[in-house]
Model the fold of this input.
Amino acid sequence: MRTLRLWLRALLDSAEVEGEIDDEIQLHLDLRTRDYRKRGYSEAQARNLARTRFGDEVEVRQQCRRLLMVERTKGGHPLMGTIIRELRHAVRSLVKTPGPTTVILVTLALGIGVNTAIFSVVEGVLLRPLPYSDPDRLLSLWENDRLRGTTQEGFSLPDYVDVGDGNEAFDSMAAFTVVTTTWTSEDDEPRRMTAVRISASSSEVLGVSPAIGRSFRPEEDREGGLPVVILGPDLFRTRFGASAEALGTRIVLDGVSREIVGVMPAGFDFPSSDVALYLPLEAPSDASRGNHGISVVARRKPGIPLTEVNAQLQALASGLESAYPDDNLGRGMWAETLYRSTVGDTRDRLLLLFGAVGFVLLVACVNVAGILSSRALSRSRDLAIQSALGANRWTLVRQQLIESLALSFAGGVLALAVSAAARRALLALAPEDLPRASNVEINGTVLAFTLVLCLAAALVFGILPALAGSRVNLRGSLGSAIGVSSGRLRRALLVGEIALAVVLVFGAGLLIRSFVRLLHVDPGFTAANVVAVGLDLPASRYPQRFPEWPRWNQVRAFQTELLSRLAEAPGVDSAAIAVNTPLDAGWTSRFTIEGRPDVAPGQEDEVRVRTVSPGYFRTVGLPILRGRDLSDDDERPEAPAVIVVNEAFVERYFKDEEPLGARVTQWDLTREIVGVVKNERFRGLAEEVPPAIYPTFSQAPFPEFFLLVRSRERKERVVAMIRETVGPLDRELALGDVATLDQRVSASVAAPRFTMVIFAFFAALALGLAAVGIYGLMSQAVGQRTRELGVRISLGARPKDVLSLVLGEGARLSALGIAIGVGLAVAAGRTFESFLFGVEKLDPLTLAAVVVVAAAAGLLATYLPARRASRIDPIRTLRQE
Amino acid sequence: MPQGSELLHGTLELLVLRLLEGEPLNGYAIGRRIEELTDDALKVDEGSLYPALYRMERRGFVQSSWGTSENNRRAKFYRITRSGRQRLQSQRVEWAGFQTAVQKILESP
Done:
């Protein structure tokens, strides 16, 4: 505050000084005019004569102002006036050298711009508090299973109820589960949307209530409550024109007419931004303790730390273990902050990029420092004169720093334009599931960050040249020799620049190699030419009563009819349905193998279960390795139950035994293994293939499934054809999640691709900046040694010798920089470890490649100045002396 | 001719200090007074008068304050300080020495 006042006063004083001088000169002119008038001149003549006599008014005024401001300086505060004057001076001298100034501004705009862009993402996604009241107290609760080695599972509904009753750590708890629902209306196509079934307690837990209307009521948590729905803010705006009249009207979801009782406030997107609407939990009264499909969010009591929460949860879990050993043996419970579970591993990725972009700015700063030091050098005569005239070191340093600040802020303004473009590019490249992406914006926090960055950058790139410049050697600079210190600084900058760039290029190399490895993973299936669409048969029209399971005739009839119609559709090579698409993790279930030693209930192994129709393996291109494929005969109700298992299953459970013919029990249904299929990747490309079994739909029907169609037609035509086939079967069914398998493969690597592309871009930027910097520094070195080189040439050195002399120096410095950079990269290797796939953090190939790339960049940047040096004309050079 | 302007500078300072010894004056009055006293033989370079005054103030030989001029306008008046008087004294001695030296050359055979 004090500083601000001083600045203001300095500004006012400087205005006052101008006023005083003007008054004085004006008075002089007026009096002189009066005298001329007395001698008989006309007013105009008199005024003209007075002016002529006075001389260069502007120049006089300027001289006086300078003298007066210095005078004021002695009084204390008007240092600010000096600074303002020096600022003007700095701007003027920068404008006078447009070349270097432009290079500096572009460098800074890039460096600060990309930092601002990344920070705007970091701020929106990581730093901004979650939009709930007192969000630090919100926790996500999970179960784990130490017998099966799972670490993060949902709750079962009974467990949730028991923890709610038994804990002393939470003020409130809410249960929810993300589902898809189909909205049908008379005037529009049926639409699938993401909905959240959520308990009435959620508004208390999150501290957010509907903007209009009411929250859910506790009785709606159970099946049989009123059929109601609460709209998300986006749906309310897009489909209801944000009109409050929507309240009380009814919409049909999955064939059930529901009354709209509330609308959530704008910006509410719990638990993720793709949620369109909220449904009551409507939990069945007989929910199983073994079904872990519930997500839990809880508000911890103030003052209870997370460790205490986890201790309580662990105690409650052990209680449930002994009370319900069948379902809960080995089960634990734990909590993490809602922030952590929302942000997930995006946090690490963004922080990695944030670190990388900091390196880019450092390289940019080193670059600018190089240019400034060369400017300082070319002005060293100036500086020497100034210091001879009594300017002390602090004055000289201050002048340089003011110049740096002027540059930095001008660069910062340009950086905002760069960051706007960079931010758009970032968001376009970001994985679709980037959490809180809509938060990313340029706001006050981001601008403040940019401001701080400008200040910090100005200090970093300004201080070295400023100190070097202030240390000018009087005798040396007034003569023509160059001080030793400038050469040392230049070499240090060059080495530092390469070292920083090498670290980034090494990181980029590792990420690129990882990504290439990832893309070369054999997914098992053949992704090309397969379109997948999601379908969901609502219970209102396709009864799904569990006592009758697996005899869900309407569901099965629809699925069989759909597949038989598609088999005859033109252009379809093959079609199938499956509960999940390839690369989708799906779900696991306990199982036992007949004839194996009994395992205590609750301790059985779990296996991935992927229910498929017989055409699945053919459609996604998975070859049957042994035995036979599932066939249509297996789908007949009276047929013996059979499954196909994958290689990983055989590897784990039938290493030395014959799997074909063995019998596996899962969900109380015993099935015979009839075939072994090639491994396909579950849960993305990076994860090891887990043991999996493939039952058929008739044994394990699901109303929600994916239709997979292999066809050489274009995606749009295939989708249109699917629509034409589904329509006549059920006009109210919507197609969801339409994508080709290629698109799904691509989406599964979106996060590593994002990290890799952005990081590689930063590395390229850093390397490019470093090359420009090296070029500048070497040119400067050659410029200073012109005389020496001229002498050498005149004494008989051949151009080749000079070329190798300069190249040699560049190469030595580059080598040192690369060595330091590799050292830093090795030290930083741990940072990359968790982002790598199939590549060691000290991958020698990457290291070698980085050394080659950096050396090439260094030599290229040195070559041009070196060639110029070799062409020095000794006669002209020596004559200049 | 750098030597000449150097000389002039010194002279101007001497003259200004001499005039201020009598009474505080504003800038214009200083110029006019020099012209009157020398019957317009010496014309002050007005462009250098004000910087000279500011410089003298900076070096502590004069002090300025705002007052009212003869025609009732706000004007800055300069008054000689203690160190200004000492400066005047030494300048007069130097001037006398300079004069004698020049005289000697002029009168030499």
In short: Residues 529 and 710 of chain A are 6 Å apart (CA to CA). The radius of gyration of chain A is 37 Å.
